[in-house]
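Supplementary Methods, section 5.1.

A reviewer requested that the exact input to the structure prediction be made available. We therefore reproduce it here, unchanged from the version used in the analyses.
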Amino acid sequence: EAALVESGGGSVQAGGSLKLSCVISGYNWREYSSYCLGWVRQAPDSERAGVAIIADDDTTSYADSVKGRFSISQDSAKNTLYLQMTNLKPEDNGMYLCAARFRVEGPCYSDDVLEDLTLFHAWGQGTQVTVSS
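The structure derived from this sequence is encoded token-by-token as follows.
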């Protein structure tokens, strides 16, 4: 089973920046044909919402609300996923969880996972992001 551990959350003023990290362990890339990694936001009293997804071939998908402000990336050598967040807004408040989908056959499409978060099967505990005005 994969393990995902997030870090980098905190409290910032509107317009500020944060960079989140997620270290992923417990998997061997040779066992899989493809994967998608992503960031999901859980706001109080709200359903989980996909924020940004990246596939093994570095294709990405973003929620409309964060396009132009957030950037997802990965460092395969370090088994680490990142989310660079700039120009933060109060609407970005929430717990940010990283999640993974590993496939043994076929590709993983980032657009598909953004639309259907149930495709993720491994989740971290989350890191809190709070933006004040």
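Residues 110-115 form the longest helix (6 residues). These observations are discussed further in the main text.
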